[in-house]
């Protein structure tokens, strides 16, 4: 065998061994792994809609998508992935953004019309002086009748700087991260069955008009006087088991070990302080919690509507200290 093909074989074998789990190794309960070398937009993504409302910057490594009175915009990864770590650094539009939705998510809705899977970060705009809300959601095997929404505030202003938002999806757990902090973990349970996403998905990013629901249940709508609304994406990272390309996953899929105790307590501290809604606590919508919910004493922090009492207290404080602030939730 020629020397060059030996070298090629060695690289190939190493790649195949690494592909045993195509999740980044550090996903093993340690800190959030680095994004790796991002693909440029042209290498890894395609525009879905919004013609000139998608613009590339910085050598095709940064993407701006915008919403104006004509259209929103969106793009998707060219490949589909079974498990992996998917992240982007995102900067959201500032000022009045009520009704605006920026979504960063995994989905296979274009392949499986009735049995699709989805993992969502949705950023919900707000009126001036009020923070963006972040929502996460999980659908599996077309379970659109059972929303698993959670909503949170953030400890920073997401319109001032780029922050990293990541979804770690393994065979047995899903973790959503904001910067280094895990904010939500979904553990696969037997009772969830196929409602735990288990088919290859692509990565999507979109901006659109969600006036009918996004801000205070639709009370505050997009005002195109403030358009265009521009969401900036950088360091888009796909580190997963790409279907039909090099990395193949072993049968059953990649496992990610549990979070470290330090990460778990960071997550719990975040949730105690910043969670504004949790479907597991929503007794109006789900008189009996969905099977994967293990509701403990923390439920006392939520109203029967699923809305967090702590969030209400924080709003109350701000309301008193900032005279004239409007009352958008
Ligand atoms: C997924 O949903 C379809 C349609 O409802 C159902 O026929 C199928 O059994 C489900 N798959 C699993 C693995 O439960």
Report on the structure:
The chain has helices at residues 3-18, 41-44, 261-274, 309-321, and strands at 45-49, 54-57, 62-67, 73-77, 81-91, 100-107, 118-124, 133-139, 150-152, 163-169, 173-178, 181-187, 202-209, 229-242, 275-282, 305-307. The chain is an alpha+beta fold and 329 residues long. A nine-stranded antiparallel sheet has the order 1-4-13-6-7-8-9-15-16. Strands 2-3-14-5-10-11-12 form a seven-stranded antiparallel sheet. A hairpin with an 8-residue loop joins strand 7 (118-124) and strand 8. It is globular. The N and C termini lie far apart (68 Å). Bound molecules: 2-acetamido-2-deoxy-beta-D-glucopyranose. 2-acetamido-2-deoxy-beta-D-glucopyranose binds at residues 115, 141-142, 193-194.
Query: Which hetero compounds are present in the coordinates?
Result: 2-acetamido-2-deoxy-beta-D-glucopyranose
**Broad shape:** globular
Fraction of residues in β-strands:
25-35%
Number of helical segments? 4
Q: Do you know the CATH topology?
A: Jelly Rolls
Count of β-strands = 16
SSE order: HHEEEEEEEEEEEEEEHEEH
- Give the % helix: 10-25%
Described by strand count, sense and barrel closure, the largest sheet is: 9 strands, antiparallel
Mean pLDDT: 85
Count of individual domains: 1
User: Largest sheet, order of strands side by side?
Assistant: 1-4-13-6-7-8-9-15-16
Alpha carbon gap, first and last residue: 68 Å
Indicate the CATH architecture: Sandwich
Signal peptide: 1-18
Enzyme class: transferase
Main location: secreted
Pfam families: Glyco_hydro_16, XET_C
